[in-house]
């Protein structure tokens, strides 16, 4: 599989690194000499040139490509680049629709056009990806528990939570997984483990758990979070059913955050210094909602923050256009006594830094965008594709058991999944056609249409796909 990526920024480079870890052939194309130089460390072909230059597309191998991704900073260039790539692809006798085209966008209307199937008709772009809604889902989930380092939703109430096992995990520490499972009824599945100074592993029954291990745990539904927290040796305050939320900024991200929390029945206060932007939110579809209060004022005005009762809010979230401004505001909210603070950041390097500052949870929207694009690339698989962030070198994929498959009627233990992977969940169609998530118990009997969510090293993805199809 040859994948061409237009744009060697954070998203393009992140995609290239993940795809190379699967041994995919990757070409990066960017007209910035600095970006090209920075990307030279990746084991991929990196070309300096304009994404709209046909000669460069040919040099990149567009006629042999399977996927073209446009991830520059411009929606218009991304759309045009996909259209030109598809046209040039067809000039070599290929069917114009055999090339999968994906572009990153910042305009929500383009995402809606893509979801409605209209974007493909007028631009030739198969998928437009915008990470805002995915980032908000992750942030809302991560803010529920302060000890989680990362939360990755896999749909249908399936989550992978990443956190540290502490010395207070009496039922798990210094025990093998097999011993822990015999001791703990309904032991959640641990799909990945990272120990300081050692590579990430898929744990086996004989893997001994030790304090300070970073682990990835399969969780079904947010109500399972408190039990996982206790098992791993952490203390957690109860999370309110409908928290009171403060949102700093009424830009597109801030408005979407407010809308998401209001839909949960929460009271939301939005603080925006720009009067025109504040008025735009107040006059929007959600502006008149009884649970929304829009305040025009300075984020740094402590007197104003006390007047709006910021210390009595349960959550404060900042998603300003400037990452450093967001961090400063979140730290101020923390200093005023808000127990949970969250950030949506553009710079991936800042995510780990702010955790050390005491901020509860941060999401990097570019990391979410990479995951969303990888999911589209792996569309031959089923369900989400997720990369573990604190346990590098492990990914999650979905595989579906088709009707008539020989594995139907066999238990999960009997179908003998390879040792290099671990099944986290089984997602099954209910009588109404909706998917429900089930624990990956060894005695669970397979049914047609079951989707297995598996974790494994990325270089073994093709091996598992081949084994599964055989």
Q: Domains counted in the coordinates: how many? A: 4
User: What do we call the CATH topology of the largest domain?
Assistant: Rossmann fold
CATH C-level of the largest domain: Alpha Beta
Which consecutive residue ranges, at least 5 long each, have pLDDT under 50?
Answer: none
* Amino- and carboxy-terminal Cα gap: 20 Å
What share of residues are in beta strands? 15-25%
- The helix/strand class is alpha/beta
Mean pLDDT reading: 91
Count of individual beta strands: 21
Give the overall shape, derived from the CA principal axes: globular
List the helices and strands and how they pair.
Layout lengths: L1 E5 L3 H12 L3 E6 L2 H6 L6 E4 L5 H7 L6 E4 L4 H16 L9 E5 L3 H8 L2 H6 L3 E3 L2 H11 L7 E4 L4 E7 L12 H7 L6 E5 L19 E7 L4 H7 L13 E4 L3 H12 L4 E5 L2 H8 L9 E5 L5 H6 L7 E4 L4 H13 L4 E6 L3 H8 L4 E4 H13 L8 E2 L7 E6 L21 E8 L5 E5 L11 E6 L4 H9 L1
Parallel strand pairs: 1-2, 1-4, 2-3, 4-5, 5-6, 11-12, 11-14, 12-13, 14-15, 15-16
Antiparallel strand pairs: 7-8, 8-10, 9-10, 17-18, 18-21, 19-20, 19-21
Helix pairs in contact: 1-15, 7-10
């Amino acid at each position: 599989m040859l994948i061409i990526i237009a744009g060697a920024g954070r998203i393009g480079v992140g995609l290239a690194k993940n795809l190379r870890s699967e041994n995919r052939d990757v070409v990066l194309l960017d007209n910035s000499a600095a970006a090209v130089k920075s990307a030279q460390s990746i084991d991929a072909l990196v070309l300096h040139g304009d994404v709209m230059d046909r000669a460069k597309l040919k040099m990149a191998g567009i006629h042999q490509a399977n996927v073209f991704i446009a991830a520059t900073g411009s929606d218009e260039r991304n759309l045009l680049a996909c259209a030109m790539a598809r046209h040039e692809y067809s000039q070599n006798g290929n069917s114009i629709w055999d090339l999968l085209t994906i572009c990153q966008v910042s305009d929500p209307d383009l995402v809606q056009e893509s979801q409605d199937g209209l974007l493909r008709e007028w631009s030739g772009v198969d998928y437009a990806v915008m990470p805002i809604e995915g980032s908000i889902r992750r942030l809302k989930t991560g803010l529920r528990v302060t000890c989680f380092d990362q939360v990755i939703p896999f749909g249908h109430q399936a989550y992978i939570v990443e956190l540290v096992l502490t010395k207070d995990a009496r039922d798990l520490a210094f025990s093998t997984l097999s011993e822990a499972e015999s001791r703990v009824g309904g032991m959640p599945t641990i799909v990945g483990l990272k120990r300081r100074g050692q590579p990430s592993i898929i744990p086996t029954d004989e893997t001994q758990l030790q304090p300070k291990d970073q682990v990835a745990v399969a969780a079904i539904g947010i109500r399972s979070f408190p039990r996982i927290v206790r098992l791993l040796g952490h203390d957690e305050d109860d999370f309110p059913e409908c928290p009171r939320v403060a949102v700093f900024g009424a830009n597109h991200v801030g408005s979407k955050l407010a809308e998401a929390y209001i839909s949960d029945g929460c009271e939301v206060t939005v603080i925006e210094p720009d009067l025109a932007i504040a008025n735009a939110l107040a006059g929007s579809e959600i502006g008149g909602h009884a649970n929304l209060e829009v305040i025009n004022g300075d984020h740094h005005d402590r007197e104003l923050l006390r007047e709006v009762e910021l210390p009595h809010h349960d959550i404060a979230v900042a998603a300003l256009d400037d990452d450093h401004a967001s961090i400063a505001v979140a730290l101020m909210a923390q200093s005023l006594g808000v127990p949970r603070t969250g950030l949506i950041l553009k710079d991936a390097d800042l995510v780990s830094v702010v955790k050390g500052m005491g901020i509860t949870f941060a999401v990097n929207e570019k990391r979410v965008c990479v995951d969303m694009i990888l999911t589209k690339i792996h569309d031959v698989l089923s369900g989400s594709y997720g990369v573990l962030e604190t346990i590098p070198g492990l990914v999650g994929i979905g595989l579906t058991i088709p009707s008539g498959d020989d594995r139907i009627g066999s238990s999960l233990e009997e179908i003998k999944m390879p040792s290099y992977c671990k099944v986290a969940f089984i997602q099954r169609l209910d009588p109404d056609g909706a998917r429900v998530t089930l624990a990956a118990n060894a005695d669970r009997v397979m049914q047609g249409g079951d989707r297995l969510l598996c974790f494994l090293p990325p270089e073994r993805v093709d091996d598992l796909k081949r084994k599964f199809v055989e």
